[in-house]
Structure to design on (274 residues):
């Protein structure tokens, strides 16, 4: 059995893989890299009644992976480049050989994965970290669940400048409900709920448009969304409005949150030696 661990800046995810199939998945809060990796591994074993001798190797990736300098628990431990892990995991989950991936974590990485190559197209510092950072300052909360609960009852017309605010007609293929400027209106009457939705809207619009440009540049009509941000229902609805305008489909495969950990576990040599 192989354990794949993605040590992120805020969350660590681990999966167990046997005979090329994902068997178990767990997620923990990241602390420091060593504690996160050891904790995720231990949780995987304890919660799933596994024995340490069943583990053939541990594959680590993510922002904290470079902090692991030695084998974990005496088990051969290898490091996989994060871009490679995202690409391998995205291809595995999507079942396609050629895809563009938007991996939404603390920030966002955009990857082109083909049958034999994986390339980092680019990305953005805009992601889950942006949502939490702005929420801490603007909403006095650092809890993602609180932001989501507030945003459910928000109105973008209170914070965003819409095309309908500045013109009586649409522009090009954009209707009057399209965003002219994120937070470009910001009424004094805007509630916390409106601001929460505005933060989510801005974040996912930036991610969505970058993904659209990447897909168009590769003549691909869909984007596979992975990472923690792939499970955000409000984010999905925002990306759906971008699909309606640009006809680029956003796909959310099962277990997309664990794509990078899965990709680490499935990656082929050469690995980076610990």
């Amino acid at each position: 059995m192989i354990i794949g661990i993605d040590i992120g800046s805020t969350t660590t995810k681990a999966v167990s893989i046997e005979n090329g199939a994902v068997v178990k998945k767990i997620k923990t809060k990241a602390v420091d890299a060593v504690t996160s990796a050891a904790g995720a591994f231990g949780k995987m074993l304890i919660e799933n009644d596994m024995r340490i001798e069943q583990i053939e190797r541990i594959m680590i990736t993510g922002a904290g992976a470079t902090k692991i300098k030695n084998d974990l628990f005496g088990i051969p431990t290898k490091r996989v480049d994060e871009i490679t892990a995202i690409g391998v995991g995205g291809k595995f989950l999507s079942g396609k050989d050629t895809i563009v991936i938007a991996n939404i974590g603390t920030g966002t990485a955009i990857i082109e994965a083909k049958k034999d190559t994986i390339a980092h197209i680019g990305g953005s510092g805009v992601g889950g970290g942006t949502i939490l950072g702005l929420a801490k300052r603007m909403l006095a909360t650092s809890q993602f669940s609180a932001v989501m609960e507030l945003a459910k009852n928000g109105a973008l017309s209170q914070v965003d400048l819409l095309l309908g605010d500045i013109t009586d007609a649409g522009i090009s293929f954009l209707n009057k409900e399209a965003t002219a400027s994120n937070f470009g209106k910001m009424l004094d009457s805007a509630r916390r709920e409106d601001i929460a939705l505005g933060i989510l809207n801005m974040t996912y619009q930036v991610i969505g448009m970058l993904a659209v440009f990447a897909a168009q540049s590769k003549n691909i009509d869909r984007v596979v969304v992975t990472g923690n941000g792939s499970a955000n229902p409000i984010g999905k609805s925002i990306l759906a409005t971008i699909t309606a305008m640009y006809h680029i489909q956003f796909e959310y495969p099962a277990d997309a949150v664990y794509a990078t950990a899965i990709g680490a576990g499935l990656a082929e040599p050469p690995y980076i030696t610990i």
